[in-house]
Amino acid sequence: MEIKEIFDTMVYGPAPESAAPAVDYLESHNRTFDLFINGEWTKPSSKKYMESHNPANKELLAKFAEADEKDVDKAVKAAKDALPKWSALGGFERAKYLYAIARQIQKHSRLFAVLETLDNGKPIRETRDIDIPIVVRHFYHHAGWAKLMETELRDYKEVGVIGQIIPWNFPLMMLAWKVAPALAMGNTVVLKPAEYTSLTALLFAEICEKVGLPKGVFNIVTGKGTVAGTALVNHKDVNKVAFTGSTNVGKIIRREIAGSGKKISLELGGKSPFIVFEDADMDSAIEGIVDAIWFNQGQVCCAGSRLLVQESIAEKFYAKLKDRMGKLRVGNPMDKAIDMGAIVDETQFKTIDKLVKLGISEGCEIYQAKNAVPKNGFYYPPTLFTDVSTSATIAQEEIFGPVLVAMTFRSHNEAVALANNSRYGLAASIWTENINLALDIAPKVKAGAVWINCTNQFDASAGFGGYRESGFGREGGKEGLYEYTKPKIEDEFSSKPIIPKAIKSSLRQAQTEKKSRSILEDIDRTSKLYIGGKQARPDGGYSLNVLNAFGEYIGEVSEGNRKDIRNAVEAAHAEKSWAGMTGHARAQILYYIAENLAIRSEEFAERIVEMTNQSLESAQEEVEKSIERIYTYAAFADKYDGQAHSTVQRMVTLAMPEAVGVMGIVCPDENPLLGFISTVIPAIAMGNNVVVIPSEKHPFSATDFYQILETSDVPAGTVNIVTGHKDELAKEMAKHYNIDGVWYFGTKEGCKDIEFLAADSMKRTWLNFGKYRNWLDNVQGEGEEFLRHATEIKNIWIPYGA
Ligand code: NDP
Quick count: other Cβ atoms within 10 Å of Cβ 318? Predict the structure, then answer.
C-alpha cells in the first residue's frame, strides 16, 4: 500500500499489546480473589464468589469474593481499630506511604493498564496514557498534602472511618481520587469497587501490602452494591460516605444516612454541554468532540454528550463530524491503534441501545458510521443524533455510552439557556477563538468544570465535582481535602443550645412591668413577612403569638406557609444584580448595614431583652458582636477569592468560588440577633440571595431588621424573611426545587428531615446535627467555613502558554 493511500484511508495494521503479564498475574492467584481486610486476604463469610468477564470477548477473567454484612462489619472494625495510630502518625510519615504507593504503581503501571483494559474494555491507549498516569499523579500530589496538613490545614483533623463506593468506568482512577486524599488526611478506608471491575483495586491492595501500609488502614470489600454497598453506607462506625455513581443510587444513599451526622460527598451523573460557536476552530472542535464523547466509549460522567452548535455553521460542522466518525476505529481494546473499545457489560450495552431506540422513536435523526464493529464483544458504534428537541428523552437523560445528541442555537443567550437546560451540572466545554466570548459564557454555565477549547482535562491539583443533580463535594484540589477533614472546633460544640441566662427573679418585676406597657403599645403590630423588599401579609392570614422566657405574651408574627416560601424563592430568583456585584461593592453595603445597626443598637438590645429576658448588658454584648460579625464578612467579601492552578502543560486552571445561588437559611434560636447575622451575612457576602426562617421563639430581631435592610441599599429580593413554624417551613425549603442550598441550625430531628427531603433535588445542606455553637465566640461563630458553605468552586480550564 502506498503511503498516500494509508493517509487517505487511515488503514494501518494492528498493534496489539500482550495480555500475557496480566494473564500470568491472574493465574498466579488461581483466578480467585478474597477480601482484603485488616491487611489479610480473607474468605467471604458467604463463601460465595462472583465472576468478572472481559467485555471485549466475554471470557472469564477471574472470580472475586462476594462480601456480605458480616464481612463489611469486620472491615469497618479493622479500619476503626487502625484509625488512632494512623491519624496520630503525622503527615510526614503518612506522606512516605503515599509516595511509596505512587512509586509502586508507577513501577507496575503496564500491568495495571493491561488488567484495567481486560476488565473494563477501554482501549489500552487510554489506560496506559490517561488513567494510570492520573492515578500516580494523585498519590504523589496527596503525599504532598499529607506533609503539608499540619501547617496548611492546621485547624482541621481527620473525619474517621471512610466508606467509599466507586463505579466501573474509571475503576483505578476513581479509587485513587478517593483513597489518596482520605489516607493523606489521616482517615482509614473501606472501599467497595464496582462488581464489573474489581481487579485493579485488588492489585492495588497488594501494592498496599508491599509498601507495608499498616494493617486495617485500607480494606476492600468486593461484592454487590445492594448488599456490601448498603451495609457499608449504613454501618454505624462509618463517619463519612464518599460515593461515585448514578444519581439514583446517590439519592438512595443520601436518604439512607439522613440525620446520622455522617459526612457525605456524591459525584453523580451528567449531561454536559459541548458548545461550538461560529468562530471556533472547527477541526480542533471536531477532535474535541472525539475526546468528549467517544473517550471511554462515552462512559464518562462528564462526557460532552450534548453538542450545541451555532446554527450558521451547523450543516458544515455535522458533515465534518460524520466524516470523522467514519474514521474512528472500534475494536479490540488491547490494540494500541484502536479509538474505541467495548462497553463494560451487556446490561450497560442494552441500556444504551434502549435509549438510542427511544431517540429514534421520538423522531430524532440518527447517524451511525459504517465502521466495522466486532461481533464477539459488547461493541457499540459511535452514534450521532440531530434534529433533537430539548424535551426529547435523549436530550435530558444520561445515556452513558458513545451517543452524541446535537442541537443548534442562534444567539449567545440561547446557547447558555440550552446549556443550562438540564438537571445536571457537572461540566461544560466552550469552543470559540474569541477569548472575550469564552470568558463571558464560562461564569454563566452551571457546571463544576468548564473547559475552554479543550475537554476532559483532569489534574489532582484542580477540584472536580458537580452542581445540581450531579452531586456535591469536590475531588482534587485543596477543596477536595475538606471532604476528608473536619474543623477541630467541632469537638468543642455543645450538645445543648447555649442560651444566655434569663435575668434573676428579683429583677423580674421591673422587667414585666415594662413588658405590659409595650404589649398595649404593640397590640396592633403583628410583624409581617419580608419578601422582595416589601413587607407582605402571610398567604394563610394567620399569626403566631410570641412569648418571652417566662412564657408571657409579647407580640405576634405572621405565620408563613408553603406559598410564602414559594413567593420568597421567586423574589430571590428575580433579583439579578447582587451576585454580579464586585466583592468591594457588596462590602460597602455590608458596612452600611453594620453602621445602621450601630445607630439603633440600644433599640435592638432592648428587643432582645424583651424576648429572652436576659440582662441588658448581655443583650448589648450580642448587638455589639453582631456589628463586629458584619464587619468580618464585609472584610471577607472582597478577599475570599479564587486561585490559579498550574495543572497540566499549556493550561491554567482558575478555581473561582461562585455563590451557591438562592439559599435557604434556618436560623438558630439561641441568639435571636447574632444567630440571624452569623448565618445570613456570610451567605449574602458571597453573592447569594437568601430566604431566611428566623428563630421561631424569638423572631423580632429579624423582623426589626427589615428597616435596616431597607435603609442600607440591600437590593430588594436579596434577603427575604418568612416567620412561622421553623421546622415546617424548613421542610418546604428542603423540598423546593429552586433552592440551591439549605443551612439548618436546629434540632437533630429537623436535620434528619432536611437531609432526607433535600435528596430529591440533590441540594447542598449544612446542618448542625444536634451540636450547638457558641455564637458569641469568634472561633465558633464565624470564619471561612461559613464562606466555603456559601460558595461552589468552579474550575475553568484555559489554554495558557500554548
Ligand atoms: P451505580 O450507581 O449503579 O453504581 C456505582 C457503585 O455503587 C457500584 O459500586 C455499585 O455496586 C454501588 N451500588 C449500587 N447500588 C447501591 C446501593 N443501593 N447502595 C450502595 N452502593 C450501591 O452506577 P454505575 O456503576 O452503573 O455507574 C454508572 C453511573 O455512574 C453513571 O450514571 C455515571 O454518570 C456515574 N458516574 C459519575 C461519576 C462522577 O464523577 N460524577 C464518575 C463515574 C460514573 P455494583 O457494582 O454492585 O452495582
Answer: 17
Beta-strand pair 306-310/403-409:
parallel
Cβ–ligand 1 contact at 352 (below 6 Å): no
For the chain, counts of helices (H) and of strands (E): 29, 33
- What gap in Å lies between CA 557 and CA 700, rounded to an integer? 8
- How far is residue 279's CA from residue 624's CA, in Å, rounded to a whole number? 56
Q: Which of 301, 302, 454, 667 is catalytic?
A: 301
**Which distant-in-sequence residues (6+ apart) come within 8 Å of 125 by Cβ?**
336, 337, 338
The closest of 315, 517, 303, 291 to 397, measured between CA atoms, is 303
Residue range 112-143, pLDDT digits in tens: 999 999 999 999 999 999 999 999 999 999 99
Q: Which atom of ligand 1 is nearest to the CA of 464?
A: 40
Cell numbers describing residue 304: 460532552
278 is a catalytic site residue: no
Name the closest-CA residue to atom 13, ligand 1.
225
For ligand 1, pick from 178, 246, 302 the residue to mutate: most ligand atoms within 8 Å of CB. Answer: 246
Residue 378 and residue 349: Cα distance in Å, rounded? 6
Q: Whose CA is nearest to atom 18 of ligand 1?
A: 226
CB 54 within 8 A of CB 119: yes
Query: Torsions phi, psi of 362, nearest 5?
Result: -85, 5
For ligand 1, whether the C-beta of 249 sits within 6 Å is yes
CA distances from 138 to 161, 265, 615 (A): 20, 18, 55
Listed residue (303, 299, 300) closest to 288, CA to CA: 303
For residues 533-562, b (16+ Cβ closer than 10 Å) or e, as one string? beebebbeeebbebebbeeeebbbbbbbbb
Q: Closest residue (by CA) to atom 42 of ligand 1?
A: 301
For ligand 1, atom 36, the nearest C-alpha belongs to 245
**168 C-alpha to ligand 1 centroid (Å):** 7
Atom nearest to 426 CA in ligand 1 = 41
364 is catalytic: no
pLDDT, tens digit, for every residue of 532-569? Answer: 999 999 999 999 999 998 999 999 999 999 999 999 99
pTM of the predicted structure, to 2 decimals: 0.95
Taking only the tens place, the pLDDT of each residue in 55-96 is 999 999 999 999 999 999 999 999 999 999 999 999 999 999
Sign of the four-CA dihedral 793, 794, 795, 800: negative
CA of 270 to the centre of ligand 1 (A): 13
For residue 177, the tally of other CB atoms under 10 A from its CB is 26
